[in-house]
Amino acid sequence: MKNLQMLIFIVLIIIGMSGCEKVAVDNQASGDVFVKAIKDASGTTVYTAIHSVFSYNQMTTVTVQTPEGLTESLNGYDSNGNSFFNEPAESDFVGVPPTPGAYVYTVKFANNETKTYSNTLSVATLQPALITSLVKSANGDSVYIAWNAIASTDAYQLKISRGTTQVYYQPAFQDGSTPLKANLKLGLSKSALTSGVTGTYTFELTGLLFENSNYDYLQAISTSTKDIDL
């Protein structure tokens, strides 16, 4: 009986050890480069390159090499290491779009494995939308934003903030009209935005242009802002 018990014990140890074998981690990531356009203080359109790298695996560092051969680190990241990006300063926006071509991302994962990925930037850009009006309704219970449509855009998104606090976000939406409208308008409930808190609210309207009809990688975005006191 003791021998049988010992055999069962050994079998259980073997089963337990087999369950503890390390599973090989398949590190994968995706990198995207796209052009962001805004208007500077003089009303001139200026541009910069935005980089974004995402992985379901934890990353520790990410660098990008430009078509000119320059290398920079992506210093913006989430706390879990699943997303790395750059955060351009106002001085990073210039009068000409970024150089088109292949941008190569070198990703170091948490297990010290390093892999490279690339994304190609074309010459296409989007001009920032002209926001033609941002007003309250006659009875004061709604807010309406109107803008001229952006040529070649695939979609728009809208973010509204009070100071540094985001109070509203409208994910990507499209003009479903046939033919497409030259001017667009969106109305929102004032009470839903403010929750009774008065102050200056910034409406940030962004146009989106994707690389292809899969809508998975961006080619260009453009952003316009306008303030209103609510």
Structure explained in plain terms:
The chain is mainly beta. It has two domains: 30-121, Immunoglobulin-like (Sandwich); 131-229, Immunoglobulin-like, CATH 2.60.40.10. It is 10% helix and 49% strand. The protein is built from two helices and 15 strands. The protein has an eight-stranded mixed β-sheet, with no helix packed on it. A hairpin with a 5-residue loop joins strand 1 (30-39) and strand 2 (45-54). The longest helix is centred in the first third of the chain and has 18 residues, at 2-19. Residues 1-20 have low confidence and may be disordered.
From the structure above, extract its key features.
4-stranded antiparallel sheet; 10% helix; mainly beta; disordered N terminus; 49% strand; 2 domains; globular; Immunoglobulin-like; 8-stranded mixed sheet; 230 residues
